[in-house]
Amino acid sequence: MTTVPTTDVPAAPAGPGGPGTVRLTPLVVRLKLSLLRNGLRQSAGRRAVYLTSLVLVSLFAVLQLLGLIALRGNAHADSVTVLLLALMGLGWAVMPLFFPGGDETLDPTRLVMLPLRPRPLVRALLAASLVGIGPLFTLCLLVGSVISVAHGAAAFAVGVLAVVLGLLVCVALARAVAAANTRLLTSRKGRDLAVLSGLVIAVGAQFVNFGAQRLGAAGGLDPLDPVAAVLRWVPPAAAIGAVDAVSEGSYGRAAAQLLLSAAALAGLLALWTRTLTRLMTAPDASTLNAAEPAAREKAGRAGGPARLLPAGRIGTVVERSLRYVWRDPKTKSAWATSLAIGVIVPVFNALQGTGSVYFACFASGMLGIQMYNQFGQDTSAFWTVAMTISSPRDALAELRGRALALLLITLPYATLVTVLTTALLGAWAKLPEVLGLSFALLGAMLATGAWSSARFPYSIPQEGYKNVVPAQVGVAWISIFGGMIAAALLSAPAIAAAIWLNVSAGGEDRAWLLLPAGAAYGAALTVLGLRLAAPRTAARLPEILLAVSKG
Amino acid sequence: MRVHGLWKRFGEQIAVSGIDLVLPAGRFVGLVGPNGAGKTTTLSMITGLLRPDQGTVEIAGHDVWRDPAAVKARIGVLPEGLRLFERLSGRELLSYTGRLRGVPGAEVDKRATQLLDVLDLAGAQHKLVVDYSTGMRKKIGLAAALLHNPEVLFLDEPFEGVDPVSAQTIRGVLERYTASGATVVFSSHVMELVESLCDWVAVMAAGRIRADGPLAEVRGEAPSLQEAFLQLVGAGGRSAGTDLDWLGGGGR
């Protein structure tokens, strides 16, 4: 654990707590400690996770410390440390967006009912934020950076200041961002966005990976220097920039960078205080949103493309399913992930020259997963569906509608991805064959998906990031992995045919046959799977409702 | 509606233990009982949303589990504690539910417009249900349950968390509905409400029916249904006690 400064925090505007008020800072720090302790006492699993992460982070921090010390004297030491710190600052700014519930003392709206003034509260919350794994890690990084770039007594003296400033800027940044976003995160639209943010990270990681490979190809750390030259003026990296400047003897630059850091800290604290005050006195944003007059009078939508849908239950179900793909945050993020990964894997592999046209089947595989746990996606609103299914025929119409909605997106998308991949690889001869395989796989996924939706339904929690309730992890695994294995087995004939046509003499000329054959096979599988799933669905309505209502 | 020997057990806990109940048609029936008495469980089993361990339920002469098609077409349900398709707007929800029920599209739209008007939801019809208040959710749920003109309507806590204005609106719609000969069965723990609305009452406690019959019969000698109810569930003599003598009076 880091040491906890219980005295006044430097640079925090000194607001008199006033005689008679409780010493807030030690109180809040103790609150944080007991929350941490109680959280760990709650379950052995959580304790294990916390201790493991503590050990891992400490280990990583120590290794990094050693690495930074070893870097001392290296020509690129300043660039590397500045970059690391800038990344660290970015991490602190982004973290509260993704883990809003990670820190109980973080959410100031819980303290709304207490008679607290903003300034002492800000000081106390800042002190409490310094307790934890994250600040410890940052401290190690800062100390290591100072050791790595500081030369001479003056530089080390500035270094001590830099460590304190850097740490405080990081923590204040996180708090200011968190407070500014509490309003967003407590409103419905904000939470909907937050669910999508995981996707941004997943896709972003692919691009970072791509960029890193490019950098690796360029060789050496020289490309980093111009970036670092800019970043050394951006707090919290500016603090380390100051240490480096002192080492080089340019005291003016050091003073400017230190001042910049201090100003950033003061600015962040002021911003935080202002948001906090507004948060505690202004009404919740979500109710304001709800009170907005319905400005978007677009009832015309039902008259548009919806008119092309078949009448009766199937069309109704398709319309609702498609609306949910767009409007329900969980469904939307699942779809967006599938769509993104479905194109990234084959196309990026093709771009990097390591791809194969067969990777294009990834698209239909990823999208076929959406057929699994159809009723879990409804949550307990499934009762409306259950109340209106009174025979296997109704259930069949329901399943057909859902499969059709899925196909309306998947079929064009999988075709597009396949064509794109073949175009990138220039393997046009393989196109019909891969398309046929894709369709066969899609059919197998739809068939097994429909069946396991009826047989192994599970709840999808609507809040937070989990996609399965803890008690149903087993069911979810059976549903998805069992289903995927079954789908692979079902599409085995198509795969076998493709292999046979490829190895047999003269088979190449007949490979186009796989397109109609694969499409027909996939369609047959889908029809059969839906027909098998329908009576099961109709017979198990109460059980399905019970299973999907746990979220 | 006939219920015979209805049982439901969740693990160790028996939620409903052997209910026998005959409810007359064309009445406003109140199912009352304290929290945890098994009202929601009973209503879920009667409407086919929860499979009973034992027992039979017949509505208008059709068994709920053997002949679901005949029963589901005749009943409307507003459950408690289950979501709606809340990412649809109020109007879309009605249009979706009505079409699932097999009502022709044009008819659904006509009825939806009228229901939205009567229930005072016309101004919010294009807003997503997720942004509705509790009272609005109950009203849109009621509209969805009424859309196919059912013979019997089951409402679980329809007035829970509803403001007085919305409650009055709901009440007006229900009174008009029963006046035409339809049956409403609703659960509640607000006795005054049940007393003023219902002409038939069933009292539940700890998974059993303690009393049922016409309102006057269940009330008996007691001055109000509240008193009769407290006696029936055996909570009559309990008072706030003298332990909280510090409470009130302005001191600290």
TrEMBL record, chain A:
Protein's recorded name: Transporter
Record keywords: Membrane, Transmembrane, Transmembrane helix
Transmembrane domains' residue ranges: 48-70, 82-100, 121-147, 153-173, 193-212, 254-272, 403-428, 434-454, 475-501, 513-534
Higher taxonomy: Bacteria, Bacillati, Actinomycetota, Actinomycetes, Kitasatosporales
Domain of life: Bacteria
Disulfide bond found in the keyword field: no
UniProtKB/TrEMBL annotation, chain B:
SUPFAM superfamilies attached to this UniProt entry: P-loop containing nucleoside triphosphate hydrolases (SSF52540)
UniProt keyword annotations, A-Z: Antibiotic resistance, ATP-binding, Nucleotide-binding, Transport
Pfam family, one: ABC_tran
Protein's cellular compartments: Cell membrane
Gene Ontology MF term list: ATP binding; ATP hydrolysis activity
GO CC terms in record: plasma membrane
Protein name per its UniProtKB record: ABC-2 type transport system ATP-binding protein
Organism (species): Streptomyces griseoaurantiacus
